[in-house]
UniProtKB/TrEMBL annotation:
Gene3D superfamilies: Dihydrodipicolinate Reductase, domain 2, NAD(P)-binding Rossmann-like Domain. GO terms for molecular function: 1,5-anhydro-D-fructose reductase (1,5-anhydro-D-mannitol-forming) activity; nucleotide binding. This is 1,5-anhydro-D-fructose reductase. Residues 6-132 form the Gfo/Idh/MocA-like oxidoreductase N-terminal domain. Transmembrane segments: none annotated. Keywords: Oxidoreductase. Residues 142-285 form the GFO/IDH/MocA-like oxidoreductase domain. InterPro entries: Gfo/Idh/MocA-like_OxRdtase_N, Gfo/Idh/MocA_oxidrdct_glycsds, GFO_IDH_MocA-like_dom, NAD(P)-bd_dom_sf. Pfam families: GFO_IDH_MocA, GFO_IDH_MocA_C3. It comes from Adhaeretor mobilis. It is an enzyme of class 1 (oxidoreductase). Coiled coil: none annotated. The keyword Oxidoreductase applies. PANTHER family: BCDNA.GH03377.
Length: 387
């Protein structure tokens, strides 16, 4: 039902909690909205810490009881920014209380849970969105427009690499991201999920995959305290139960071939989320480390002038960019989250469906799981297509 305010309950207040909070704070300042988000309540396990967070980030209330917050009549949208293991329970509770649901990626730690979440939001008739934030980089939205307009022709190759180096030091202590029971997987679900989503967005569905994963550092210093990506060491050591790296090949339904590499052990690569797409008429290349730039090669350019041109997606006509700063002024990581909650708010206000939604999240889980199946069987695995 269309509405003019949107009361938000955020669950989680670490790295993603901050990223989401700054987006909710800023979205109404930079964008014209059909509904005004109200930062009603932020939830977390440590009552004192979440209380301080609420004050710092402008949430009206804080709570150490997310179930109560979700049930409150004062809440329209539940924003889930916790580790993957809790997504399903929270989304099911939100849907049962007829609340719209916004959820961090990957949608869940298993395909089975992702499907349960999709079924629940559909049954409840609420809006649902998964936070594949990189889709909202202006350069990526522009790439999508260019591909849809036929600028690079028929897609033949999709080359995705998502490389980080924050775990290269074997003395980096454990945190939830290295435990299967909280994160589900390592680089595979954390980073690979972004690449899979971007590839699906730009090049269509993936039919079949073959791949493998590897944990290079199998034991690490135990966790002392942690905040997002950083942690201090505690006493003793703990076994790492997720992958450090994942690698797979893909066959796309539209005929393209793809390769996907995700790792947290690539020295020098900080947030190297890169995609290169080669089509029959040209190529597009983007990397998050220069997120405002889109490289474009066109076979239609005069022969003597052919070469990759660098488009700076910072002009008023570029997607989202016009709502921020005057032309030529760069956007960063935080802006992508604000662009996401802008679209989410507008969809809820107007009654339109959100994108990417839980179907996209579940389809991404299906690809991740097919890679696991392939690893077990040692052969190509079909990707389940989620209706
Ligand atoms: C850590 O690897 C991480 O923060 C991911 O969890 C995010 O999804 C990605 O955007 C940046 O890296």
């Amino acid at each position: 039902m269309p509405q003019d305010t949107l009361n938000v309950a955020l669950i989680g207040y670490k790295f993603m909690g901050k990223a989401h909070s700054q987006a909710w704070l800023k979205v109404g300042k930079f964008f014209d909205l059909d509904a005004q988000p109200v930062m009603k309540v932020v939830c977390g396990r440590d009552g004192a810490a979440v209380g301080e967070f609420a004050e710092r980030w402008g949430w009206e209330n804080s709570s150490d009881n997310w179930q109560e917050a979700i049930a409150s009549d004062d809440v329209d949208l539940v924003d889930i920014s916790t580790p993957g293991a809790s997504h399903c329970e929270m989304a099911l509770a939100a849907a049962a209380a007829s609340k719209h649901v916004f959820c961090e990626k990957p949608l869940a730690n298993s395909l089975e849970e992702s499907k349960q979440m999709l079924a629940a939001v559909r049954k409840a008739g609420v809006k649902h969105m998964v936070n594949f934030s990189y889709r909202r980089c202006p350069a990526i939205s522009l790439a999508k427009q260019m591909i849809d307009a036929g600028e690079i022709g028929e897609i033949r190759h999709v080359r995705c690499t998502y490389l980080q180096d924050w775990l290269v030091d074997p003395d980096f202590p454990m945190n939830w991201r290295m435990r299967a029971e909280s994160a589900g997987s390592g680089a595979h679900g954390d980073l690979g999920a972004h690449s899979i989503d971007m590839a699906r967005y730009l090049a269509g569905e993936i039919d079949e995959v073959v791949g493998t994963k590897k944990t290079f550092i199998t034991e690490r210093p135990a966790e002392g305290t942690s905040d997002g990506l950083t942690a201090t060491a505690g006493e003793g050591t703990e076994k790492v139960t997720v992958d450090d790296a994942s690698l797979f090949l893909a066959k796309f339904a539209g005929g393209a071939l793809g390769s996907f590499e995700a790792t947290r052990l690539a020295p020098g690569r900080k947030n190297h989320n890169r995609i290169e797409i080669n089509g029959s008429k040209g190529s597009l290349v983007w990397c998050f480390e220069s997120l405002n730039e889109l490289e474009f090669y066109s076979t239609s350019d005069p022969g003597t002038q052919q070469g990759f041109r660098k488009i700076l997606a910072t002009e008023g006509d570029h997607p989202y960019a016009g709502s921020w700063w005057p032309p030529g002024h760069m956007l960063g990581y935080d802006h992508t989250f604000t662009n996401v909650v802008y679209d989410l708010t507008q969809c809820i206000a107007s009654g339109k469906d959100c994108s990417p939604d839980f179907q996209d999240g579940a389809q991404c889980s299906a690809v991740l799981e097919a890679v696991n199946d392939s690893e077990k069987s040692g052969s190509w695995a079909k990707v389940e297509q989620i209706a």
